[in-house]
């Protein structure tokens, strides 16, 4: 049935004129389907309208205030967690100064500054027995943390030298494949510690004089891992006996020493690199692997050496080999220790060893230690927590260090040792009487540089050297304490456990610089994600509870009718006695002519039909309501009855709703009713998902940009 037949009380010519004035761009079928149609919309039309509804609601998520706030919050959190926190923590660190040092500008130039990094232990297959993408993921993020930390360290503090206290790779001693070893060396030298851009020496400064011969001999043998079998021990014995009769190390480069040379290196953004071998690099004691030791010498330099830095003698000692009972393993280190013990110190000596020296199991490590567990005298395969007591005393008495730095433990530990500065009256070590001139030699165990090695907050140590008068050593008074076995200068207040450092004028000062707690940063990200979800749920619940979704639904489900303002651009309303008539302005171009007084009846009929359509919530009617005459009431009943019968016949919309609502997208069929909780609505959960998606769509690109900036 056409619209003309439904409006039977109106003349055909009058209907034609009405339609021509009102909908010049719509056909008759369009008008029927857009206003009082009883036919179900086509599948294509429903899909298009559903897409329109989805897109419109997604647009509301994009414009929501809480979504904008969360986007900003995530950008700030990612920028802080990925970059700013590194700058802030490292900029808080400054090179330590002794109050007795001259702080004039020229004297400040004489400071020699060393950054000490311990146990980076680059994560590899050995660390957590991982493979595939999981191993790649762990390697990427542990490397990224150390890369960022070292980059900020080097750019901010500008050290003269960087010394690595061993355990450079976690599985170094167990990596047999040469290709994997070369790959790990590249990770260490270029990806993490950026030697190409920041190292003054990419080749070792101190080399082993016999390393080349031993390396070539090793290549002629089996490329596999050499064990401590009888055959390999015999082969090693011949090589070791040859190395005893010649120097064990050779300084092949002149390290910048003058103020002008060091300043030029710093301006170039570079520093001298020195290395100490760790048990993860070469093994420990009787299980030390000679082939891995040769690899280390070839890649990073000699295992035992002494060089001069900042008017100090820097002594690197291989306590891993010294801890072996097999003389064939310990010969090289023992020879170096004996030679240096025969020399009288001319400069203050600073000893670097990977394994800490002996102390009582109850020795307090200081307030900076993170773990409550102390360093105790125990060990296992390829490791031991400390050098044994006899060897420790031999090292202290022969080298007579003013300061000792060690690693291996991964946590901060600060203790003191007594050193006899007197000389034996006769005989070898341990024979004859000694003049008791005891002094203090502090030992600092440096925390790990990686966040994946058992501590929450890694760090490094800054060491300042200043010896303008070329003093031979430091005299830190130490009186043994009967209660703890440690010098009284160390145990200043046994009740509080405070660890005192010597306050007298010395030639060196050290301090720790702590790095970000990376796990805490990840927990902040997790907490922020939970906060984001909670905030979105809260805001969308309020949005649904207040009924604000209905405004969006009305906008999306409203279909064009003959009374749309865009199509009646020239319509004006004015009162006509007790009713309101509508007329077209002369500027209207809908039909090319203007309705006259004869159109009053048709216009009233259209207003009656318009009154059947619902208006948006809290919206006022477009025109004043009419007071229908008996004839108009009859016409209205005829039209309404025809619409109801048509709907019931085709199973269309409910009689309580106008025909325009029959085109509402299926997406909104589960919109909540006043008696239904918003949490049970699909619309609620979809809008929550869209809000979260709009936040993630900003957070992920920002994180990707920050990640790429760190890798450049």
TrEMBL record:
The chain crosses the membrane at residues 519-538, 650-668, 688-709. It comes from the Eukaryota. InterPro entries: Metallo-depent_PP-like, PGAP5/Cdc1/Ted1. GO terms for biological process: GPI anchor biosynthetic process. Residues 217-253, 576-597, 612-655 are annotated as: Disordered. Residues 578-591 have a biased composition (Low complexity). The keyword Thylakoid does not apply. The keyword Transmembrane helix applies. Keywords: Membrane, Transmembrane, Transmembrane helix. Residues 231-246 have a biased composition (Polar residues). Residues 221-230 have a biased composition (Acidic residues). GO terms for cellular component: endoplasmic reticulum; membrane. This is Calcineurin-like phosphoesterase domain-containing protein. It comes from Podila minutissima.
